[in-house]
Design goal:
With 243 residues, the protein is mainly alpha-helical. It has helices spanning 2-12, 34-59, 63-77, 85-116, 122-140, 143-152, 166-205, 214-227, 230-241. The chain starts with a helix and ends with a helix.
């Protein structure tokens, strides 16, 4: 304790003015150069896009379907917080990377690399990058959902050689993914609900009404899921649903 007190007193005795620290100042002022204002707006827009980028990318990839299906699985098993949210989100992220890898490779070849090598402009690179993502989303989007947003946007139909706008494709893709995830979740629930009904009926017939059925059905559902290699089957079917 004496040594700790001595070291503390020595550190506190060092004059603060002897050290120089960098400072950052933000200020608003006037400028006669219009380019300064444009640059400031560009910086604000870039920071805004970077802040929203994770949410945007999540909604335009396979992440939504995978995570919702995993949530349904955990609810059907009745295991509360097992597996934890961190594990499910991490697995969903890595599966998303695996599924979206061909799309990102195409973007890299057609848009990012030519732009870095200054072969195309920024606008052209953006247009080329949109094409693979739009194609992926349209493959997973139902025509009814896409038509809904096209009609809501005042556009009844898209021409033969005209691509639907991204502002209509993205929400249509999201609700299509949610529908597909709920369909898969319903199929996951069926065998586990049957186990719950059987266990509850057996306990009622035996007169064991005070025993919670979940105490018996939970280990049965877990062992059934393990015996059928549930994680392998679920992952394989999720991967196949995007082909």
């Amino acid at each position: 304790m004496k040594l700790f007190a001595l070291l503390t007193s020595m550190l506190l005795s060092v004059p603060v003015a002897a050290a120089e620290y960098p400072s950052v100042q933000l200020s608003l002022g006037t400028s006669e150069n219009p380019g300064d204002f444009t640059t400031a707006l560009t910086i604000v827009m870039v920071l805004t896009v970077l802040a929203l980028a994770p949410s945007i990318l999540v909604m335009m990839t396979s992440f939504t379907r995978i995570l919702v299906v995993f949530a349904f699985l955990r609810q059907a098993l009745g295991t509360q917080q097992a597996p934890p949210n961190q594990i499910l989100i991490g697995l969903a992220l890595f599966m998303t990377v695996f599924i979206m890898m061909p799309v990102w490779q195409e973007i890299d070849v057609k848009a990012l690399t030519p732009y870095v090598e200054e072969e195309i402009s920024q606008k052209e690179a953006f247009e080329r990058a949109k094409a693979p993502i739009r194609e992926f989303m349209l493959r997973q989007t139902r025509d009814e959902d896409l038509q809904l947003f096209l009609l809501a946007g005042g556009k009844e139909q898209v021409g033969e050689h005209e691509e639907p706008p991204m502002v209509s494709v993205i929400p249509a893709f999201i609700i299509s993914e949610l529908r597909t995830a709920f369909e898969i979740g319903f199929l996951i629930y069926i065998p586990f609900v049957v186990i719950d009904l059987v266990v509850a009926s057996v306990l009622m017939s035996m007169g064991m009404m005070m025993l919670p059925p979940v105490m018996i059905s939970l280990p049965l559902k877990i062992i059934l899921f393990v015996l059928i290699d549930g994680w392998h089957l679920l992952t394989a079917n999720l991967l196949a649903s995007f082909r």
